[in-house]
Amino acid sequence: MFLVLFCYKKMCLQFTKQCNMSYEWIKKLPQYVHQIWFDFNDTSVFTHDHCKLVSHTQSMALNYGFKYKLWSLCDAEDFIKKKYPYYYNFFKSPITFNIIKCDFFRLLLMYHFGGIYIDIDFYVIKSFNDLFTDPDILFYDIDNSIVEDKNNCKILMFEEWYNSSNLDDKYSIEGSFHNGILCSVSKRESFWIEICNHIQIYGKNVKNTHDVWKVSGTNKLKNMFIQNNDKKHFFYCKYYVACPFRCVSIATEEIMECKSPNDKPINSSESYWMSYTLSFLENLHDVRLFFDSSAVVCIDIPSGSLWLNKV
Description:
The protein is α/β, with parallel strands linked by helices. It is built from eleven helices and eleven strands. α5 packs antiparallel against α7.
């Protein structure tokens, strides 16, 4: 009888500890989910798929206790004018690549509010709190080592595809982290504002898409991650957490699901990346079972970040 009571108390303590850990992260992660849709020239088309994805993200955010906002260009201009007027002239000035302003504003949101930024071409399949409470979702540090204590995290990045971070060669300027999904556990984290300042200085002089990648895009995030690695609280997730995809053999057309640490895609010269469509996900019986440790899935839609092969 004593042994039974002892085991029961031990189980209760473990359960309480798990609940407290989950509650701590619910309190610690700023409860904001941001998306943006900037229509610079009235030519962009907000499609039915866009509407469904935005509605789904908003529902997931609200269901899990997050505040949600879809920012328009007017919203962004008003926000910058009131809160960060020293950026206003830059944001209102014409530049060659308007995507730079989108990049800039998402980073500013991370600095000011923290929480989650996510592009509208993502399909959310888990609560964003699960990033910190789900033991199947692993964080990695600058040395590609698994992070034991997620409580140290202040900024979380995500790979775009298999080994896009290129951290095997951390001193190389090549590599990228996705800017379609960002996570800031801390508000007012200087990492974000440093990039904003860089964009303000150099963004208006960008003349080609490769420089967009370096000045405000995914390569800039990777390089800033490297420069700040001494802080020991910037981590990242492997590609399958936010960008699971199907790797298809060119020779045999055989499809390989890529969704776990052990799934290594076929060499890029021998395969191509097949992304997912919204209709495919909607027809799955249980998307959670399909994408083991994935939290969100990047969708192949026009005006999104993917224009690849449909599944």
